[in-house]
Design brief:
Order of helices and strands: EEEEEHEEEEH
Radius of gyration: 18 Å
Number of helices: 2
Helix content: 10-25%
């Protein structure tokens, strides 16, 4: 599996977020409360990302995207921020990236990654952290 190039930074804080995909199905009832059930134990998290690249970084990104990330279709190792800090995850592009000028010599890249197996606290870590 490919790895995000070390010459390229982690995503910018601006525009960054974690968007977990809903893991349950909900059925509204004619009367009474809606019913819900869990559909999956493994759901992806969508992560909007932005980067500022100089010309050399943009050249590396474009070539890496094409050759290593299989034009965005392939999985790769990348680092994201979450409640456990900076963590390494399996990611892939969920849509094509876009580029816009961000100054005289900088390009802003915007994309959305699909992340699987996002590290979170275990049940015992949660119990220890909450005193439960």
């Amino acid at each position: 599996m490919a790895t995000w190039p070390t010459q390229l930074d982690v995503p910018l804080v601006e525009g960054y977020g974690l968007e977990p995909v809903q893991a349950f199905a909900r059925t509204d009832m004619d009367q009474g409360p809606a019913r819900q059930r869990r559909r999956s134990r493994s759901t992806p998290t969508m992560v909007p990302v932005q980067f500022l690249f100089d010309q050399d970084q943009l050249a590396i990104f474009e070539a890496w995207y094409e050759h290593e990330a299989d034009s965005g279709a392939g999985w790769f190792y990348a680092q994201i921020y979450n409640g456990k800090g900076l963590v390494t995850v399996d990611a892939r592009f969920s849509e094509v990236w876009t580029a816009s000028a961000a100054g005289a010599l900088l390009t802003r890249i915007s994309a959305k990654w699909e992340v699987r197996n996002r590290p979170i606290m275990t049940a015992s870590e949660l119990a220890a952290a909450t005193g439960g």
